Amino acid sequence: xxxxxxxxxxxxxxxxxxxxxxxxxxxxxxxxxxxxxxxxxxxxxxxxxxxxxxxxxxxxxxxxxxxxxxxxxxxxxxxxxxxxxxxxxxxxxxxxxxxxxxxxxxxxxxxxxxxxxxxxxxxxxxxxxxxxxxxxxxxxxxxxxxxxxxxxxxxxxxxxxxxxxxxxxxxxxxxxxxxxxxxxxxxxxxxxxxxxxxxxxxxxxxxxxxxxxxxxxxxxxxxxxxxxxxxxxxxxxxxxxxxxxxxxxxxxxxxxxxxxxxxxxxxxxxxxxxxxxxxxxxxxxxxxxxxxxxxxxxxxxxxxxxxxxxxxxxxxxxxxxxxxxxxxxxxxxxxxxxxxxxxxxxxxxxxxxxxxxxxxxxxxxxxxxxxxxxxxxxxxxxxxxxxxxxxxxxxxxxxxxxxxxxxxxxxxxxxxxxxxxxxxxxxxxxxxxxxxxxxxxxxxxxxxxxxxxxxxxxxxxxxxxxxxxxxxxxxxxxx
Length: 479
Known about the structure:
The protein has helices at residues 11-20, 31-43, 115-131, 151-155, 226-237, 270-287, 311-323, 366-382, 403-416, 430-437, 462-475; strands at residues 47-50, 56-60, 72-77, 99-102, 105-108, 138-143, 165-168, 176-181, 183-192, 196-197, 201-208, 213-214, 244-250, 256-257, 261-267, 296-301, 307-308, 327-331, 339-351, 354-363, 385-393, 421-425, 442-445, 450-451, 459-461.
């Protein structure tokens, strides 16, 4: 095949990345990339295991002279977030990505690039193919469905792993070593209601223009949550008008801060309701930070909907939207600037006779997650909802002593002449799941620099890939 990265280093890593970019690998569609990995291992005579969820483990013996060193586990996920621009025709189930290089970055035309976490897959393939000539025995674990709840990592049989040192390559900033992360869970609160015939005037309310972002990494940035703002607007309107919700839609992913929310309302006087909402929106706009300066509220008359909620059910929905705790709930007492406990109302969606509110709670402390479950159960009971808690994953506590972390920091310093920074993040990594199955494992999460992941603007810094590969090449012979 013809490579767009021809002439760039590290050549082997980039060629493998281009090859896997021709294999569709969205979450829950990893069978093709699993086939690719199994064929790769068989062609090289490497021991390989594929499980029912398409996780793949490839094991390679130590290179000559390294047989007495303890084995090393390297890990990344094969799935990618599949997003594209509206004007781009691309079938993520069948089409290869269209890659190009621009200004030192690798990108995809109109779609996500999948460097999160395809670059880890490419690096492990290059390593297994002899790209680092001196290294200990390596166990390379390729997990699935990371982007939708760490499902593959949860499902894997860790009795197959002998290594007690792990390099996870799912971090996105060169020069940063992640040494801890939050755990989390999802909670769906569902309000069942008996639809009533639509009555009154219909007002379509659209709230848009917010910045949004990752509900872990950006939760302390002060960015507004569109669903919560809609709750505030409706709470201001509800005492002043005979308000009935007909439909409510906000956010698209439970792990993102929602940027937009829209509601269809039944009111006696749409013009009066729009005036009140516009006034409240003006007050909100004065409170928002610079990231949300494009905040906009649009109120338009529209055709009546097929049905609506009763006034009482509307009041329950508005109460839940308004009263659910959201954002940073507790800062760490041990790590300055680190969020310890947070919750985000990521998605609100309407169905036939029901409305569902989806929350993402994060904390490195299991007791906090337990407390969140109890709190949301109580809120659900007060608002007449049912609660379902799922997709829970453990956190990863910072270890005061880590020989692997020290070795990586030393290798980074030797290669770059500068010091890497150690960080703990308020987001989930598969390290937490793996560590829960392999107690005491020494772990770090590292990687080259990427920008705007999970969006069509995703870009992989090629210079950082070259540096990161050199760091691995310096580190592995010393482990």
